[in-house]
Design brief:
The complex is a heterodimer of chains A (240) and B (283).
Chain A: H1 3-20, H2 23-42, H3 48-76, H4 81-85, H5 91-120, H6 125-152, H7 156-172, H8 185-191, H9 196-206, H10 216-234
Chain B: E1 5-13, E2 19-28, E3 32-36, H1 43-50, E4 58-63, E5 66-67, H2 72-76, E6 79-82, H3 94-104, H4 109-122, H5 138-152, E7 156-160, H6 168-180, E8 184-188, H7 192-198, E9 201-206, E10 209-214, H8 216-219, E11 226-231, E12 240-242, E13 245-251, H9 255-260, E14 264-266, H10 271-282
Parallel strand pairs in B: 3-8, 3-9, 6-7, 7-8
Antiparallel strand pairs in B: 1-2, 1-4, 4-5, 9-10, 11-13, 11-14, 12-13
Helix pairs in contact in B: 3-4, 3-5, 4-5, 5-6
Classes of the chains: A mainly alpha (240), B alpha/beta (283).
The structure holds adenosine-5'-triphosphate and magnesium ion.
Magnesium ion is lined by residues 43-44, 84, 160 of chain B.
Chain lengths: 240, 283
């Protein structure tokens, strides 16, 4: 892993770009904040804790997906991916660089969520550490899925359509913003295809919102490893 | 003489069935070789295979002793490859582009900054170093990539049409940058004077095959003592017709006669190899 590259790229592509185009900072915050607002209103405040956790998870997952969308854009439109293929960079250094760039712009959003969560008294120290671990796993899993999907895209015209579908299916449908227990078992199992589902279940268990579904942990671990392995094979890094 | 790039029966068939290379054989020994050929001839395909960006379908290619398939990881430490038509990332500056690329190749931050500065100065991009690429002209964007190649100081450098779209002075800047590259250079171009100016040897690619290889003099041997006479006049006769232009190759001493008939006389260049080749293929 070329950590120096990931760091430099995140700095240039993510942090420096905030001053050149701050809209992303707002848009990264907007989506989950709107959800937080709506869920709080509709549930008369009962589900606000869920919405805060969901906000974290969806920011992580959507930014991983946006990062890979940029990778597809750079491959198809800018034709610049080849430049990096012919270096000692791996596809994952490159995708991590892109993903962290987006996460950098999403940091203010995460911070706001952190503050809201702290004010609501959701977070306690130990579960918080475990929660960070879950988010890291989710990051890798979501990034891998995005790499797989964007690798299949041949024309930029299709890119944003596909990305929107993927990010909704991956982050909004799973029980990220609502209690996982209200889902019938079959629906829960079906939604396990998105790593957000086990991640959300574990988070809700961790902070005592629902009972702890420990079996979701091996599911999340397995999904992350599996998606990562498939992505490595299908990244389309060196064209066949 | 040491063979730096060895290509044996290299074939490429893309996923959609297009056969881009039909079995290329080449041994490159010189410091600077140019690959020329018409649109779609297979130049980019060949460059991408040699620089480990694209897998060959069959055959073998060895660059600086390393196989492009088996030893790709080692080879990548030694090479730089600038893709045709690559565009910079719009909101990054030239300086950020160079540093990103150098760090991707394994440089430290400090070394990257130093090498980037030298290259940007050489290509007269220094004043624009902190301007986002979106705000640069097309030629300046192109020069960012040439600067990357220069800064990387690699042992083997592949440049796919490095000067397309550049003004004449910028092209001279790129040429001198190319001459400063310390490694072995393979570049493609559609500018025949560029091939003649820069390279020691030239490979001609056509329809996925290498149809000629050697120095300019050796490639143009068959035109010795001749000039090109061309005209666009209706009714004029030419051995070769391209669009509306009729072309003939005539002895230098007969040139005056053709001038009287309204032909324009031009010196022979590498382009003429394609003129006769195109017609040979059609007939
Ligand atoms: N990714 C691809 N998939 C399918 N066919 C391709 C692909 N890339 C190139 N080709 C085809 O392969 C052939 C050779 O293309 P290539 O890009 O190597 O030509 P070139 O000599 O570089 O041309 P130019 O001077 O226009 O850049 C062409 O017929 C082209 O249509
Ligand atoms: Mg080309």
């Amino acid at each position: 892993m070329n950590l120096r590259f990931i760091g430099a790229f995140t700095w240039y592509y993510g942090i420096n770009s905030i001053s050149r185009g701050p809209s992303y900072v707002l848009s990264a915050m907007l989506y989950p904040l709107v959800f937080l607002f709506l869920i709080t209103i509709f549930s008369a405040g009962k589900l606000i804790d869920f919405a805060v956790l969901g906000g974290f998870l969806s920011i992580i997952a959507t930014n991983a997906i946006y990062g890979s969308a940029d990778a597809a854009f750079q491959r198809i439109q800018l034709k610049i991916q080849d430049l990096f293929v012919a270096t000692s960079l791996t596809p994952f250094d490159y995708t991590f660089g892109l993903t962290f760039s987006y996460l950098a712009t999403a940091l203010p959003g995460l911070l706001i969520y952190g503050i809201i969560g702290a004010l609501l008294g959701i977070f306690s120290a130990l579960p918080l550490l475990a929660f960070v671990g879950i988010m890291l796993l989710l990051l890798v899993a979501a990034m891998s899925i995005a790499v797989i999907i964007t690798g299949l895209i041949k024309h930029v015209r299709n890119l944003w359509g596909v990305i929107s579908i993927v990010s909704v299916v991956l982050t909004m449908v799973p029980p990220s913003f609502y209690p996982y227990v209200i889902l019938p078992k079959w629906a829960l199992y079906l939604l396990m295809i998105s790593p957000v589902t086990p991640a959300a279940m574990l988070s809700q268990g961790l902070f005592g919102l629902e009972k702890m579904p420990l079996y979701a942990l091996p599911v999340l671990l397995f999904e992350t490893a599996a998606y990562f392995a498939i992505a490595m094979r299908m990244s389309g890094w060196r064209e066949k | 003489m040491r063979t730096i790039i060895e290509i044996k029966d290299l074939k490429k068939r893309y996923g959609d069935g297009t056969v881009a290379l039909k079995g290329v054989n080449l041994n490159l020994t010189k410091r600077l070789t140019t690959v020329i050929g018409r649109n779609g001839a297979g130049k980019t395909t060949m460059m991408r295979i040699l620089s480990t960006q694209l897998m060959p379908s069959s055959g073998k290619a060895v660059v600086d002793g390393l196989d492009v398939v088996r030893d790709a990881w080692m080879l990548r430490k030694k090479l730089v490859s600038i893709p045709q038509e690559a565009s910079p990332m719009g909101f990054l500056t030239p300086m950020e582009h160079l540093k990103t690329y150098l760090i991707a190749r394994g440089s430290t931050m400090g070394q990257a900054a130093k090498d980037a500065e030298n290259a940007l100065r050489t290509l007269e991009l220094w004043d624009a170093r902190n301007t986002p690429a979106d705000e640069l002209s097309g030629g300046m964007k192109r020069k960012i990539f040439v600067a990357m190649a220069l800064a990387a100081n690699a042992e083997v450098v592949f440049l796919d049409e490095p000067t397309t779209g550049l003004d004449p002075l910028s092209r001279l800047e790129v040429w001198s940058a190319v001459k400063m590259l310390k490694g072995t250079v393979v570049l493609t171009t559609h500018y025949m004077e560029e091939a003649q100016e820069l390279s020691e040897e030239i490979a001609m690619v056509d329809h996925g095959e290498c149809i000629g290889f050697g120095t300019v003099q050796s490639l143009l041997k068959k035109f010795r003592g001749m000039v090109r006479a061309e005209t666009g006049a209706d009714g004029a006769k030419g051995r070769y017709t391209i669009g509306n232009t009729k072309i003939r190759y005539v002895k230098l001493r007969d040139a005056e006669h053709y001038v009287d008939e309204g032909y324009t006389i031009k010196p022979i260049t590498l382009e003429d190899l394609f003129v006769i080749r195109g017609v040979e293929l059609e007939s």
